[in-house]
Specification:
36% helix, globular
Length: 193
């Protein structure tokens, strides 16, 4: 199954741009920059999209929902239906509090794990899409409210890790696109991919 849609989850607006919850969008934006792709607003989908065609590969779409995180599935579901993309042809890139900052994990099934964007995708798409989960944990201080933590900017130390890992995140995403979820899981889900 070829992957036709890569969704970078996050919240719209400059005030959220460098927050932990927008790490998925940061990685998809870095992928678009690497390949010289331009974004255009698509009001019908409540998203910004970039069209990506490489050599003889089928056309792929990158998407940044313009909805808030908890409505991500509405935008991605509309885009997938319009382009007749099956659920197995979708990768969602998003932050995960249960994974240590700087690590990533690729999975294909499972619950939302408390992530509102993943829950919205499950509501609108069902299961079977590829999860490209980027670590933003552990939450510190522990008593900090979860919402405040994910909506706050990275600490300078975390930002340094993220900036160092950004090319690796992009390469990992390209591996998912080129080789599929199984091979990506085998390579990327190890402690030191």
């Amino acid at each position: 199954m070829s992957i036709s849609l890569v969704a970078g989850l996050g919240n719209p607006g400059p005030e959220y741009a460098r927050t932990r919850h927008n790490l998925g969008q940061m990685v998809v934006e870095a992928l678009a920059r690497k390949h010289g792709l331009g974004w255009r607003r698509e009001p019908a989908f409540d998203a910004e999209v970039a069209r990506w065609s490489r050599d003889s590969d089928p056309v792929r779409w990158l998407a940044r929902p313009l909805t808030y995180m908890n409505e991500s599935g509405r935008a991605i579901g509309a885009l997938a239906r319009y382009h007749h993309i099956p659920v197995e042809g979708i990768v969602a890139v998003y932050d995960d509090l249960t994974i240590e900052t700087g690590r990533l994990k690729v999975t294909v099934t499972g619950s939302a794990g408390g992530h509102n964007g993943a829950a919205s995708l499950l509501d609108h798409l069902g299961d079977g899409w590829i999860r490209y989960r980027l670590g933003i944990g552990p939450k510190h201080p522990q008593e900090m409210d979860l919402k405040d933590y994910v909506l706050s900017p990275f600490t300078p130390e975390q930002l340094t890790i993220i900036e160092q890992k950004l090319p690796i995140y992009v390469q990992g995403l390209e591996l998912v696109l080129d080789r599929g979820a199984d091979q990506a899981m085998n390579q990327l889900n190890r402690k030191d991919p």
